[in-house]
Design goal:
single chain; two-stranded antiparallel ribbon; globular; 3% strand; 531 residues; mainly alpha
């Protein structure tokens, strides 16, 4: 009897789409219940003009009501079309599919990337993924589909490529080899909060530069160890379709003709790669020129209304930041076409379009998933539950009498905890900075170091919550490359795969933060952990 029951349970799996629909209904019902109980919170923000704190009351928005249901129905299309991961994924896939359709990605992978040792390849993927957070969350849309394809061609499990790219972007988010969008988003909050204690405080965009460069390298090394020693053995090998075939086909081959064919193919592939390289360099030079201000016809991708270059590059209205995914896609498109023409793998424009279009055939499920997840996240944000929990946690910190290492560690944990429900670093810092920064400064800890603690807490749990918008790309691609369609990758299974990465990287983050504070080395030019 027990065996039969166990067998039935093994055969039953909820698809992620179904789970997210259930979660959406749960949030709607929960919002109604919490609204009925008048659940609310207050948080303070710094008034830039008066340099004083303005208190904001936030309540749960009741979505289990006439107006709530009306909001859900009337905004369904808007939620889907304005969902960030959708546009970024579509743009990146157009470029990747063109490059794949002409054979460029396969040839480049087999000729160059297949020779790279596995551990070195993993390190490079994680390092690039961490660095991609320079420009918000574009790494998810570009690296996840690209690494799945590269690993597949390279005879490694594409599931491993997906996990590696996702973990690299998520659990290293906010650090990089240069200042980027994170600095621009956080700096004003840090400066305003610091001026509550000292109006002469100056917060530079480079105030975390040394820390983020060193941490990028440390996280890449630790991440490589986790992937190669723990996660890769658990995931195992990937059986391609031809490996399931039980039959073998034999045919007579003329050795001389075959050798001649391979020589000709090799020559054409080299020619195609040269063409792709030349085009890529020319396009990249054009992009770089468009990022240089005050030259003839330059600065096209900069927001020239800003005076500081980093703000021109990564500010709210930066053309470079808004169009980066398209720029990357354009490089793939032009390089792919150049390779196809040079290697003669395509004859005309119709073949290029046809080959690229075929690659979209298996993506229907991920677009359905994106639609459902877009509704879930929109409903959750509208409910204000995440904001209220974050405000409660910030208030909890305010009522604790802490200093030094206990203050740093508790702040880190509270931010990491709030990140499960409020994934935007700017939104969290808006709530936490007026409390954390003064507390840190009164404990002789610099406001710049408080900003680092926010980075760490945000990064620790970023990839371990389904409320992260780009989580949909991760779980969607796991199911695209899933060989057992009757056993889809559920939210629970998707999280369990990255659980070792989450735990070890979280410990690493804590050790880095505490160790840096104890040693007291600079976190940026002329800036240390203490005042």
């Amino acid at each position: 009897m027990k065996d039969k029951r166990r067998l039935k349970l093994k055969k039953f799996y909820f698809h992620p789409i179904t789970v997210f629909i259930f979660l959406t209904f749960l949030v709607v019902i929960l919002s109604g219940l919490l609204s009925l109980l008048e659940v609310q919170a207050t948080y303070s923000t710094v008034n830039v003009n008066t340099k004083e704190l303005d208190t904001t009351l936030i309540t749960v928005e009741n979505l289990f009501s006439f107006d709530g249901i009306k909001f859900i129905i009337s905004n369904a299309a808007k939620n889907f079309l304005s969902f960030g991961p959708l546009g970024m994924l579509l743009l990146s896939l157009i470029g990747i599919n063109v490059a794949e359709g002409t054979g460029f990605i396969e040839t480049f992978t087999k000729r160059h990337l297949s020779k790279v040792p596995k551990s070195v390849m993993t390190f490079l993927v994680i390092f690039i993924a961490i660095t991609s957070s320079l420009i918000n969350e574009v790494g998810y849309a570009i690296l996840i589909p690209l690494m799945a394809l590269v690993y597949f061609i390279n005879n490694r499990n594409p599931i491993l490529g997906i996990v590696t790219a996702f973990c690299g972007v998520s659990f290293g988010y906010g650090v990089s080899i240069f200042v980027g969008s994170m600095e621009v988003a956080l700096m004003d909050y840090t400066k305003s909060a610091a001026m509550l204690i000292d109006e002469s405080t100056h917060i530079a965009l480079t105030s975390n530069l040394i820390f983020i460069i060193v941490t990028t390298i440390i996280l890449s090394i630790v991440g490589t160890f986790i992937i190669e020693k723990i996660i890769a053995p658990r995931i195992g090998k990937y059986k391609k379709d031809d490996e399931f075939s039980k039959t073998e086909t034999y045919k007579a081959i003329n050795i001389e003709e075959e050798e001649q064919r391979l020589i000709e193919k090799d020559k054409l592939e080299k020619k195609g790669l040269r063409s792709a390289l030349i085009v890529s360099i020319l396009v990249l030079l054009l992009f770089i020129y468009s990022l240089i201000p005050n030259l003839p016809f330059s600065g096209m991708l900069l927001d020239m209304k800003e005076t500081i270059y980093v703000n021109q590059l990564f500010g709210e209205n930066s053309y470079f930041q808004d169009g980066f995914t398209y720029l990357v896609s354009l490089v793939f498109i032009l390089a792919g076409i150049a390779y196809g023409i040079g290697s003669k793998t395509v004859k005309n424009d119709k073949e290029i379009i046809e080959n690229a279009s075929k690659k979209f055939a298996n993506l229907g499920s991920i677009f359905m998933l994106i639609f459902v997840v877009a509704q879930f996240i929109a409903v959750f944000r509208k409910s204000n539950i995440g904001m209220i929990v974050a405000a409660w946690l910030a208030s909890l910190l305010e009522h604790m009498s802490l200093s030094g290492i206990p203050l740093i560690v508790i702040s880190l944990f509270l931010i990491a905890l709030s990140n499960f429900l409020l994934t935007s670093p700017a939104s969290k810092w808006m709530i936490f900075s007026p409390i954390m920064v003064p507390m840190f400064m009164q404990s002789n800890i610099s406001p710049q170091f408080a900003q680092i603690v926010l980075r760490a807490g945000d990064s620790m749990t970023k990839g371990f919550t389904p409320l992260l918008a780009s989580f949909v790309i991760y779980i969607g691609y796991l199911n695209i490359y899933n060989l057992h369609k009757d056993k889809p990758f559920t939210i629970r299974k998707s999280l369990s795969m990255i659980a070792p990465y989450f735990v070890i990287i979280s410990i690493t983050w804590i050790l880095i933060i505490v160790g840096w504070y104890i040693i007291g080395i600079p976190i940026g030019p002329g800036v240390g952990p203490t005042i």
